[in-house]
């Protein structure tokens, strides 16, 4: 989702497995105290289960005995639709696709890769994360995205404040795939530059998963009029290391790199999030074109079905220019003109007061020829990164001051 996962008054433990101890299974929580309709998504009515309530009230009776009058009384009943081979096939019913994933016990099964239930999630690699709604106290809504909402919650068992993403299931294979993709990446990520994953659970028509609560928020909300060069260098380092981890360890391209999907906390830590549209690498090529159009690389706009690792490098460079200048660098009245500018015009640059090293770093990321953009390993060795590698930049101070400035501006 695009909305920021912000967070935290409490910081989760540094261990890479779930902080949550095993808990006994329980029945589906009523959740009436948390503003949730019993057995459904928060504040929403319970949807019908597969096979229930699908017959229209005035639908004709198509088979079996029924009263007849007149001359028809002495005739055999006519053939019904099923006998004629015209009956609707099961997969054509609204809940057919849904039933492939949700079994009668109420578990959400992703083709054996992950099983999500009311008490947690079990992955096929043996990893399990136990968490349930009864143990969570809803604190406040943090944001809304394309597919659901993000809530700030308190986990009573561990005294940890978390960010809980709620995703309402629909009869959409794409959404189900995105849920599995994000859960798969989060539970496998053992990187300081990826948000921590605490667990997930499923209640009827909603999937919930709990993540690290980043209390300052997403970078698009706190860069203000622009971040200074030393802070930009530290942000860049964290982003590159996070993207490099996804590629090297999980063979994943993020595909939606932008300031909205980069979070910061009051300690000054910077981490990537939102992996719903990430793609599995196929010889460094992801064969789908998903993500925010404003941060698309030129080659993605020209050929919609191609996406390489270097496309994320372009998105990285464009995001850094935005954070340094305090605004998105392309300004046009419509999306068509904006995309045309990305393809045809010279790439944007950093403000004049930035160093030559930083400007060269951006120029390398925003090279129009994708094959000439550097790899993540090369970016980490770039003079811009090396210049600030051993410099003690007070990221916590910057993060808290930026957060305070944002709050003051809202008042």
From TrEMBL:
InterPro entries: Kinase-like_dom_sf (IPR011009), Prot_kinase_dom (IPR000719), Protein_kinase_ATP_BS (IPR017441), Ser/Thr_kinase_AS (IPR008271). It catalyses: L-seryl-[protein] + ATP = O-phospho-L-seryl-[protein] + ADP + H(+); L-threonyl-[protein] + ATP = O-phospho-L-threonyl-[protein] + ADP + H(+); L-tyrosyl-[protein] + ATP = O-phospho-L-tyrosyl-[protein] + ADP + H(+). Residues 24-35 have a biased composition (Polar residues). ATP binds at residue 165. Pfam families: Pkinase. One of its GO terms (cellular component) is protein-containing complex. Its EC number is 2.7.12.2. Keywords: ATP-binding, Kinase, Nucleotide-binding, Phosphoprotein, Serine/threonine-protein kinase, Transferase. Residues 136-385 form the Protein kinase domain. GO terms for biological process: cellular hyperosmotic response; p38MAPK cascade. Residues 1-78 are annotated as: Disordered. Belongs to the protein kinase superfamily. STE Ser/Thr protein kinase family. MAP kinase kinase subfamily. This is mitogen-activated protein kinase kinase. It comes from Circinella minor.
């Amino acid at each position: 989702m695009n909305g920021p996962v912000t967070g935290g008054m409490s910081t989760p433990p540094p261990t890479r497995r779930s902080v949550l101890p095993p808990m006994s299974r329980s029945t589906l929580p009523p959740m009436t105290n948390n503003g949730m309709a019993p057995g459904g998504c928060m504040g929403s009515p319970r949807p019908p289960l597969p096979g229930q309530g699908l017959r229209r009230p005035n639908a004709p009776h198509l088979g079996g005995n029924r009263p007849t009058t007149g001359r028809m009384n002495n005739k055999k009943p006519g053939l019904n639709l099923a006998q004629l081979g015209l009956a609707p096939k099961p997969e054509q019913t609204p809940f057919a696709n849904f039933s492939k994933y949700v079994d009668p016990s109420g578990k959400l099964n992703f083709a054996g890769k992950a099983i999500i239930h009311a008490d947690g999630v079990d992955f096929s690699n043996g990893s399990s994360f136990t968490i349930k709604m009864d143990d969570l106290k809803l604190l406040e809504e943090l944001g809304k995205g394309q597919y659901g909402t993000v809530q700030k919650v308190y986990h009573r068992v561990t005294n940890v404040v978390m960010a809980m993403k709620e995703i309402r299931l629909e009869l959409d294979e794409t959404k189900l795939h995105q849920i599995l993709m994000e859960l798969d990446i989060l539970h496998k990520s053992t990187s300081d530059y990826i948000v921590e994953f605490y667990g997930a659970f499923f209640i009827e028509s909603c999937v919930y998963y709990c993540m690290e609560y980043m209390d300052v928020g997403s970078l698009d909300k706190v860069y203000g009029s622009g971040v200074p060069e030393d802070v930009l260098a530290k942000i860049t380092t964290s982003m590159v290391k996070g993207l490099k981890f996804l590629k090297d360890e999980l063979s994943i391209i993020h595909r939606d790199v932008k300031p909205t999907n980069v979070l910061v906390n009051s300690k000054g830590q910077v981490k990537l999030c939102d992996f719903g549209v990430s793609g599995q690498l196929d010889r460094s090529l992801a064969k789908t074109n998903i993500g925010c159009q404003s941060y698309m690389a030129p080659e993605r706009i020209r050929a919609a079905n191609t996406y390489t690792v270097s496309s994320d490098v372009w998105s990285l460079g464009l995001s850094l220019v935005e954070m340094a200048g305090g605004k998105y660098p392309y300004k046009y009245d419509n999306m068509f003109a904006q995309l045309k500018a990305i393809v045809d015009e010279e790439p944007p640059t950093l403000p004049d007061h930035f160093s030559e090293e930083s400007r060269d770093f951006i120029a390398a990321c925003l090279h129009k020829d994708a094959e000439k953009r550097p790899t993540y390993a090369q970016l980490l060795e770039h003079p811009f990164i090396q210049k600030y590698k051993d410099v003690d930049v007070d990221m916590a101070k910057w993060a808290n001051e930026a957060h305070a400035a944002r709050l003051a501006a809202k008042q």
